Amino acid sequence: MYNRIFNFSAGPSMLPVPVLEKAQAEMMNYEGSGMRVMEMSHRSPVYDAIIKGAEAAMRRVMNIPDNYRVLFLQGGASLQFAMIPMNLMKTGKADYIVTGQFSGKAYEEAQKYGQANLAATTKAENFTRIPRQEELKLDPEADYVHICFNNTIFGTKWDYIPDTGNVPLVADLSSCIASEPIDVTKFGVIYAGAQKNIAPAGLTIVIIRDDLIRTDLPAYVPTMCNYSIMAKNESMYNTPPCYPIYMCKLVFEWIESLGGLEVMAEMNRKKADLLYQCLEESKIFKNPNSPESRSMMNVTFRAEDDAVNAKFAKESAAAGFANLKGHRSVGGMRASIYNAMPYEGVEALVKFIKEFEQGL
Amino acid sequence: MYNRIFNFSAGPSMLPVPVLEKAQAEMMNYEGSGMRVMEMSHRSPVYDAIIKGAEAAMRRVMNIPDNYRVLFLQGGASLQFAMIPMNLMKTGKADYIVTGQFSGKAYEEAQKYGQANLAATTKAENFTRIPRQEELKLDPEADYVHICFNNTIFGTKWDYIPDTGNVPLVADLSSCIASEPIDVTKFGVIYAGAQKNIAPAGLTIVIIRDDLIRTDLPAYVPTMCNYSIMAKNESMYNTPPCYPIYMCKLVFEWIESLGGLEVMAEMNRKKADLLYQCLEESKIFKNPNSPESRSMMNVTFRAEDDAVNAKFAKESAAAGFANLKGHRSVGGMRASIYNAMPYEGVEALVKFIKEFEQGL
Fold first, then answer.
1. What element of type H or E holds B276?
2. How confident is the model over A244-261, as pLDDT tens digits?
3. Nearest 5 degrees, angle CA A203-CA A209-CA A212?
4. Testing the interface with B: which of A31, A37, A74 to mutate, by most B Cβ within 10 A?
5. pLDDT tens digits, residue range A173-205?
6. Min CA distance, A18 vs chain B (Å)?
7. C or N terminus of chain B, fewer CB within 10 Å?
8. A220 vs B222: CB contact, 8 Å cut-off?
9. Residue A52 binned pLDDT confidence (cut-offs 50, 70, 90)
10. DSSP A238-277
11. Could you tell me the residue ranges of all domains in chain B?
12. pLDDT over 60 (residue A32)
């Protein structure tokens, strides 16, 4: 319709066409205001309805309980890697489970602020699986346990929510938020960069249980990195990233219109199954990960022969499949199939893989 | 044409119509890429040309020398209030000149990181003027001197660049960047939230002289708050706010197409003169500021009788002049007339003020 290509980027990534069409229709004059959303004072009643509407839609879709605050912040997951320990380290120790690059970065950053303990890692197995509950060496006195729920680069996902007892579980959901139902009450904090499943880049979502919001932070914590100040000011301490918040509202309303996260999960499962099935049957491409740990959002595959990988990356791009080349730290290919990737995109990719294989 | 109203918001604020039209035309399919700018991988060649193009246009228009780095960051000026001292306090002391609310916040935030000295303030005069050079009690041993070049709330602007000797001058230009030519070489750091003159909210510009970029920062500085890491990664340590950066490119190209900052300044001067002249002639509305300190971007005015102010705020809004009500800390009215406010908008406002006055 718009000559859209199938964009398998790990993020920023495709946005749903109905959302883009609504945004375009409302663009030059939002609801008769005579303004574009991008031009509105964030303190105006018309914008206030947008940010409150975004939060309300997210709460309905994700079933977020009243004792959790939703914050619209900036800086991406990378700034959260510092904000989590700055705000949550009370006794000064926390457990980190490292299952890929971003959880590794979070673990490193936390060491600036206290004692970050490596409670488990699958690094020795090249992050091809998520550790099992019995492998986690959890400290019952830790301030929190940190995990990355879906590993964008390695294409793995926690297939269970770890039991951390009374210790709050903190999870980076950047690349799987809103892809399926999740029990928010099992987490102390959920955070996510918006640029994969929620909105254009520049917005960070933090969902935090209100008893974890502290005011007695170390003096060095910047005002903008203090959850209590952000919560007290309802994400309006200063100008928030207004347009991505507007898009976030449209995206959650779109999910709702489809039937919510159960339906979303079913659609995502169908896409992922189709692609994993194709890789199972392939004689040249393999997904390296343990079946139970496979991500529904990021599907990695590679041929043993790197010349074949290079040929596939080149030919798939030429055929209109964008951004299939895997992250340089893993090599091979990665198809990110977030909420907005249509089933037809995965079907077309599977067809292309089969034809490529036959043509070798 | 689009039923656009005249929006006098202090920010986010109007964007230039030619920029909005170009963005709309390119929206669903950017340069034949089959993607929207909002959906592009920030590491793709097509997006790389956008971010590099934004920097290049800004460098041409603002005449930024090669020994300055341009960074595209997040968090607004409020995060810079912390990043400046975290990155620049070497001996642990800095001079702050407080001329309004935001310079006051910067001064407060800096006290977390060292000895922030109040080198001058016009608080006792309700910030109605900028202090003169001879009033500044500058410490020649300070790590830097911080000023806010244009005071959005009080409607004042530095009419000169203070002489700080060998001490680097750091300036918040959020509400006047790109409104007129400025000699970048007089500053060590210039920073600005983009949501007034440059782009939609969610982007922060930092222009920093490269010898001020240090790597030996205190351990508590978050990676995302470290200028050297941001500079080394060319603002791509993590996903940048891609869409506002694209809009920044279009805005600077628009300024260039008009003839650059000299022409922009002439247009802005004409608008501001028209409005200040009207206030000089008004029997009920007055601008409280010293003539030499008056802002070209934010024009404040108020009637002695607060009932008249309330009546004006209400009737002007009803007549399609949005966001004229002044900041709650000052009262009265404020017309923010940034680059994208057309001359016709100020003309219409002046006509409305005169008619309002006659109707009293």
1. helix B261-281
2. 999 999 999 999 999 999
3. 105
4. A74
5. 999 999 999 999 999 999 999 999 999 999 999
6. 12
7. N
8. no
9. very high
10. S---HHHHHHHHHHHHHHHHHT-HHHHHHHHHHHHHHHHH
11. 18-258, 260-359
12. yes
What one-character DSSP code corresponds to residue A65?
-
* Domain spanning B260-359, CATH class: alpha beta
Q: How many CB atoms neighbour CB A187 within 10 A?
A: 22
Residue B215: the pLDDT is 96
Chain B hits for A41, Cβ within 8 Å = 7, 9-13, 322-323
Closest-CA distance, A35 to chain B, in angstroms, reads: 6
Q: Answer yes or no: do B4 and A34 touch at CB < 8 A.
A: yes
CA-based nearest distance B143→chain A, Å: 18
Both structure tokens of A221 = 């914590």
pLDDT at A27 (0 to 100): 82
Residue numbers in A near B32 (CB within 8 A) = 3
Q: Nearest Cβ partner of B243 from A4, A40, A202?
A: A202
CB contact under 8 A, A12 and B112: no
Residues of A in contact with B86 (CB under 8 A): 222
Torsion angle of the four alpha carbons A293, A299, A303, A306, in this order, in degrees rounded to the nearest 10: -110
Compute the mean pLDDT over every residue in chain A, rounded to the nearest whole number: 96
Report ipTM (2 d.p.). 0.97
User: Pick the residue with more confidence: A347 or A5?
Assistant: A347
B218 to chain A nearest CA, in Å? 10
Query: pTM to 2 decimals?
Result: 0.97
What's the pLDDT score for residue B2?
62
Question: Is the CB of A323 less than 8 angstroms away from the CB of B44?
Answer: yes
Which candidate from A10, A200, A238 shows the least CB-CB separation from B78? A238
**What secondary structure does DSSP assign to A125-176, as a single string?**
GTT-SPPPGGG----TT-S-EEEESEETTTTEE-SS----TTSPEEEE-TTT
- Check residue A138 and give its pLDDT: 98
Question: CA A191, B198, B175, B324 torsion: positive or negative?
Answer: negative
Helices and strands, counts by H and E, chain A? 9, 14
| Calpha distance B311→B330 (Å, rounded) | 17
* pLDDT class of A2 with cuts at 50, 70, 90: low
Q: Tell me the sheet residues that pair with B96.
A: B118, B146
Asked if B44 and A5 come within 8 Å (Cβ–Cβ), the reply is no
CB-based contact B322 A44, cutoff 8 Å? yes
Cα distances (Å, whole numbers) of residue B273 to A97, A170, B258, B299: 62, 55, 20, 10
- List the CATH code of the domain at A18-258: 3.40.640.10
Helix axes A242-258, A45-62, angle to 10 degrees: 40
- Cβ contact, residue pair A7, B243, below 8 Å: no
Q: Average pLDDT for residues A34-61, to the nearest whole number?
A: 95
Residues of chain B below pLDDT 70: 1-2
